[in-house]
Design brief:
Elements: H1 20-29, H2 51-55, H3 73-81, H4 88-108, E1 112-120, E2 123-129, H5 136-154, H6 157-177, H7 199-219, E3 221-222, H8 226-244, H9 254-276, E4 278-279, H10 280-291
Helix pairs in contact: 3-4, 3-7, 4-6, 4-9, 5-6, 8-9
The structure holds zinc ion.
The site of zinc ion has 5 residues, from helix 4 and helix 6.
């Protein structure tokens, strides 16, 4: 459901104040928004603290992050599509580049999130200010930049295009599951179909996506099956923690740090898996040469 459009705002400008749903969700449970609700809905001015500034020093343990393993399905599918696709580790970075940038920006105070228990069924994250990473324009630009970087390194246009497509796919997948907190260009109109409010739909969808991705990957590559199985097991473990562990009740710096660490682990594992398997067309070519 879209928030009614008001006057157009420039990219990067957050409308002052939180979406009304946040306050409602918090009030219902009688809780607080973050560690100091009075300033947790910041207007973007240099003098005012951000939500993270406000909550930065909270020391509460943070057992879960907002990870979403379905994002890696396009990376696996791209790797399956052509031997010219970037390596699997690079594609895993592409799949979550937008979130990597988001969590880094949260730590820097450039973009903002906070914890609002009950805001949506499957996690308590109110991602209320992310114009540079989770706007369609922003995600497209991140994709273009990453695609150009891959093109510069590999000198392979196909690799660059797949890298860019996988980065941009992040926004479309987020559109399915997020509550309306995404934008087209950082403006006030918020988009999101909110599947995270329907666990019985969202969980099977995510498992189906990642299952399809791994099926394509295994079908179109040759090599030992152990490494991809280890990768999928770790991904499912992380996702299970995300879904079923107690949710954080307050924002803290640990939350984006844990998210970045978990992505780093998955990227390292994917990089390793990529070294153990070859695309079936590349493997066939190598075998033909060997026979000659
Ligand atoms: Zn995202």
């Amino acid at each position: 459901m879209a928030v009614p459009k008001t006057a157009a705002l420039p990219l990067g400008y957050a409308p002052a104040g939180p979406p009304p749903i946040a306050a409602t969700a918090t009030k219902k449970r009688g809780g607080r928004i973050g560690a100091c609700s009075a300033v947790s809905a910041p207007a973007r001015s240099d003098s005012e603290p951000t939500a993270l500034d406000c909550d930065r020093f909270s020391r509460d343990p943070v057992p879960a992050t907002t990870m979403y393993i379905g994002h890696f399905a396009p990376a696996l599918a791209a790797s399956a599509a052509t031997p010219d696709a970037p390596r699997l580790g690079t594609l895993f970075v592409a799949a979550q580049l937008v979130d990597l940038a988001f969590f880094a920006f949260v730590i820097m105070g450039v973009e903002n999130m906070r914890v609002v228990p009950g805001i949506i069924a499957m996690n308590p994250m109110d991602l209320y200010h992310m114009p540079y990473t989770h706007s369609l324009l922003g995600a497209t630009l991140w994709g273009l930049g990453f695609g150009l970087a891959v093109l510069a390194v590999t000198r392979n246009l196909t690799a660059g295009i797949w890298a860019a497509v996988v980065v941009a796919s992040h926004w479309l997948l987020d559109l399915l599951v997020h509550r309306p907190d995404l934008t087209l260009d950082g403006g006030p109109q918020k988009l999101g179909l909110g599947l995270w409010d329907y666990p019985l739909l969202a969980i099977p969808l995510e498992l189906a996506l990642i299952g399809l991705g791994f099926w394509l990957f295994l079908r179109n590559s040759r090599g030992p099956v152990g490494p991809p199985l280890i990768l999928v097991a770790v991904m499912l473990l992380f996702q299970a923690v995300n879904w079923f562990a107690p949710q954080p009740e307050e924002m803290s710096i640990a939350l984006p740090l844990v998210a970045l660490l978990s992505y780093a682990i998955l990227v390292a594992l994917a990089r390793w898996v990529g070294t153990t398997r070859r695309h079936r067309r590349a493997a066939g070519l190598a075998m033909a040469r060997y026979r000659r």
